[in-house]
Amino acid sequence: MAEKKKWSGLKTWKGSSRKIDKRSLFIQHITSKYKQMYENIQLVPFIHNRVYRVDKVFVGGGIELLSFGVDTGQSQKWEKLKTYHDILRDLSRRSTKRFVEGNAGMGKSTLTLQLVYDWCNKVPESYLCDVEIVILLRLSQLKGVTSICQAIKLFLLPGDSRLSENDLSSILNSTSVVVILDGFDEYPDQDRDSGVLSTLLQTIFQQFDVVVTTRYLPKEFALKSSRFRLTGFDEVSRNEYINKVIASEDEEAAEKIKTILRKNVILNDLCTVPLFFVMFVHLANESAEFPSIKTVTEFFRLVMKCVHKHFECKVKDINIPHSSNGEDHSPLTKLAFEGLIKEEKQTSWRKDEIISHIGNRVYHEYVKMGILLEEETSELDEAGRKSALSTIKTTRVKFYHALFNEWYAAHYLSELAARPDVRLDLRDGTYQKLLSFEKEDMLRHLDPIENEYVFRFASGLNSEAADKLDQYMTTRYGGEQFALLCVLEQSEKTEKVLKQINKMGTSPVMFHSHQSKLQHQATIKLLQIAANEDYPISSVWIYDNFQYVDLAAKTIALRSGITFPVLQTLACLEFREKDKKFSQSEVMDIAAFSSLCPNVKTLKFVYCLMPRFIQIDSLLILLKRNAQVLWDNDFGPPFEMNLATGEWQNDTGPLTDAEYQDEVELFERLARQSTQMSQPL
After folding, report:
1. Threshold 0.85, pTM exceeds
2. Which Pfam families does its entry note (predicted)?
3. Residue among 188, 176, 13, 9 nearest 88 (CA)
4. Rounded CA gap, 197 and 495, in Å?
5. Cα separation of the two ends of the chain
């Protein structure tokens, strides 16, 4: 971290009889604000009387760093971090911009609250202990704000604070500072080209170490930033949360939750998303329907049923009439949908704007239920751009979480797609609505990777819409697997889809680096369903896509960003890694992972260079299973590993040093040729 000049110390306000340390007062103000934030974590929107301190519920989950390695044969790879603290391990690294990426529900905002908790409470393991000031700002609140001091004055200091923006500037420029900006993708200025946001960020990035959370990485920051991503909850993380939050109060309930997750693969997969998992854990006793859930749509419908049930009980207790029954939300669904299909997503609205769409009574009911949240923001006139004193405070409204936004948007999409005047033109794969959107693809900005659940929910809500969306996904994205996953949302078609999934496992299933992340994500979910149904999976090929094995999480990390799990019915696992030189530790980890898949009888490596020997400890389970480990360079018969000795052998006996050296030279020659061919003329 760049050296900062020393703060001059004590200052005196006119009329004060004592000297006041402005820096200490500033820290007192922001720590008090942070305490209000991190001590009031509401895990389920409608349970207002149960709030938690962030450290009591926070679980790190999976976090990865995009690193640039010279010894891996790859220009960059995602590496798993041991702990969330490592995001700030090196505060003096070349890049002072750290972007933490994660899809909806992955826990980005909760992570930011844990970071400020660590700073406020001087948690020894935290690298923020040595930082004098930490600033946490939510970008969703900063419409029109042009300076960090203005933002701090508006949203972190009490209204009667006598600290001026000049005071704040002096403090920040005289000490070590880390700035945390939560929700880049939620910034409310829809016209980002106005320069307001870029001016604000440029100033902050030049002066401070910064952590930014976002659903996607802005292209302009991709090359000069450290990139991290949240990968969700594996079984270890889920058990940690259950033991931390539930078992301490009710061990029987904790075991019940673990049992349900073990038996229900759909729910188990859904609960890799921390938000879904937390809602399930705290609602498991609300309904006997949770163990039998077969689709994501059923899960969320049940969550919403619990939300409305709690609200109805509450208003009956206090004898207040209500109009919201869970179905009376058409204007809200239209608003949610139209916000998501814009090129620059709109996920918050002015309070008066949203009331004009859904009505005053329904609005207040949805706020009381916790589905809609009010958030204080600012609107600045020209004078206000120079000083926070001229700022007009306003209230903007957003959904409790982005996944609730997608749920309501999906209702509108399902109704729209099912209409006869909305059809799919298979010639160009675009929707045609024979009204104001004629010959326009309304969904062109609705990315199925970023907004997966909009499509899955919409398919589960309406079978006619599902058929059109199935065709749309297949023709527009080539996403047959994702389309199949969407069709699976229709409970009445489950048997038909399961037959297709069973058939899928009879031939090799490929995870190629050229395939989309969407395809990999959907394919893995379908394979998990196949394994849970005890359908045989003949072979999986990981093609130029291997990153590393995470034995603690029982997964293989793919370069596409998806993790490949243990599959109970997988028979053959094949790695086709062109120009890849496997290390001994990598092969040992792969062998150990294969041992976790009880039916793997063949482990194969193709187009790559393998280590001369493998330590036999990692091979013992495969040896007892009478499995094969093969190495095929595609230029002659493959070598087979002697699992008892860890040596490669062929028909003539063990591979000699001279023969292995021939393989090394062949590999290096082919790698050079491949590099030359890939270079532009």
Report:
1. no
2. NACHT
3. 176
4. 50
5. 43
